[in-house]
Amino acid sequence: MGKYVQIVEADKSIDQIRDNSTLIFLGGCANPSRFYDSFSNRVGMFKGLTVCSGLSLGDYRFLKKGLGTNFRYVTWQAGINLRKLMKENDRRKIGFIPLRLSELTSVIGKKRAIEPDTVVIQTSYPLNDGTVSLGISVGATQHFIRSARQVIAEFNTNMPITDGDSRVPIDKIDLAIESDRPLANYDTGVCNEAESKIVENVLNLIPEGATVQLGIGSVPDKVLASLGQIEKIKLCSGMLSSGLTDYLKQSSSGEKILTGELAGGLGLYEGVNNSSRISMIGIEKTHDVRKLADIKRFVSINSTVEIDLQGQCNGETVNGVQLSGVGGSLDYIEAAAMSSGGISIMALPSTTRCGEHSRIVKAIGSTEVVTTPRFCLDYVVTEYGVARLKGATLWERSNALIGLAHPKFRDLLSAEN
């Protein structure tokens, strides 16, 4: 094919997808929306297609037609826009795979449990060197490209050009469609008073010279925005969000910022375009526990749905309904535990948003799951303070966690203990 790629109308690209095959969509904010719309328009041509993706921070518009009739959707990370489907739990429509991200490439790929036939990617337009840039989403994309029989690209004029492992030779792309639509936007929102206090408590735990990983959500994003205040901080994370813009303004370090995904708005995307500070890296680097463990003072910052008095964390379900996934949190917690001077932080508000339910509970319920085992937990942070569970007995853990609960729930937790 040389340095040329066949460009077709979006609807025509759907004709090249084989029925009864496995189609891979990317996650994060790399949402090829023109392709998604055409997929919905032409979905009637399929009878047994399987569509797979990780967490999408877009609107999941590809699910609006044909789900359960023409195709089935399988995911390893449930986003907020999937909550209704997850609650419905119709096996004809949706399937969930419990999977930590460090194992993704050993589960999905050639001669793996799931073999991709077609992968759809979103990229920049071709560059002078005969490549396209994956821009804001590298993650497992290069692995999927190597594994799939066919690669369809949506060239987008708004995709930033990024450094690192983001380049794909255009002769690896079988056909492409064109788009000038805005990239997906991810807004972490404004921290409330409790979350602002959590951010402060987390920042006080991070040592100078640390290499920091952050989860997603308002608290990690606001921590990221303030990290430039700490000396000699480095970043290595599976995903970074809009707080990176403030970090870049504050940080005088010339260290490369390593991430697999970027999720935010126009300001972030314009800021990373052709930036020499940002290096996009693949999932085989962002989630390799052994390599991360070799980093001194590796600090992992994540959150969870609830934590019980033994220190077990449920980060995935509410009332038995899947609302998230295993993700990479356990990979990072393990790496921090093995890192010289490393720590892991589990940060969460003491109550649900409405204030009616404690997120520190007596025990994980029978309909819920344990995402993080009790022996893995290190620091726990709420708006009421910090507790270190490493080396603490079960009684000590229980007392410390009750102290982090909202005052109106402490008597109940103590009475049950």
What does this structure look like?
By secondary structure, the protein is α/β, with parallel strands linked by helices. It is built from 14 helices and 24 strands. It has helices at 10-14, 33-42, 83-88, 104-107, 141-147, 193-203, 218-226, 243-250, 266-272, 283-286, 289-293, 329-338, 394-404, 407-416, and strands at 6-7, 22-25, 49-53, 71-75, 94-96, 118-123, 131-133, 150-156, 163-164, 167-169, 175-179, 211-214, 234-241, 257-263, 278-280, 298-302, 306-308, 313-314, 317-318, 321-322, 343-347, 360-361, 379-382, 385-388. Strands 9-15-14-13-12-16-21-23-24 form a 9-stranded mixed beta sheet, with helices on both faces. An 8-stranded parallel beta sheet has the order 1-11-8-6-2-3-4-5, with helices on one face. The termini are far apart. 51% of the residues are buried.
Number of helices: 14
Largest sheet: 9 strands, mixed
Strand order of the largest sheet: 9-15-14-13-12-16-21-23-24
Mean pLDDT: 96
Whole-angstrom Rg = 22 Å
Beta content: 15-25%
Low confidence ranges: none
Query: Given the helix and strand composition, which structural class is it?
Result: alpha/beta
Alpha-carbon distance between the two ends: 68 Å
Describe the global form. globular
Helix content: 25-40%
Per DSSP E runs of 2 or more residues, the count of β-strands stands at 24
Secondary structure: elements and pairs:
Layout: E1 6-7, H1 10-14, E2 22-25, H2 33-42, E3 49-53, E4 71-75, H3 83-88, E5 94-96, H4 104-107, E6 118-123, E7 131-133, H5 141-147, E8 150-156, E9 163-164, E10 167-169, E11 175-179, H6 193-203, E12 211-214, H7 218-226, E13 234-241, H8 243-250, E14 257-263, H9 266-272, E15 278-280, H10 283-286, H11 289-293, E16 298-302, E17 306-308, E18 313-314, E19 317-318, E20 321-322, H12 329-338, E21 343-347, E22 360-361, E23 379-382, E24 385-388, H13 394-404, H14 407-416
Parallel strand pairs: 1-11, 2-3, 2-6, 3-4, 4-5, 6-8, 8-11, 9-15, 12-13, 12-16, 13-14, 14-15, 16-21, 17-22, 21-23
Antiparallel strand pairs: 7-10, 17-18, 19-20, 23-24
Helix pairs in contact: 6-7, 7-8, 13-14
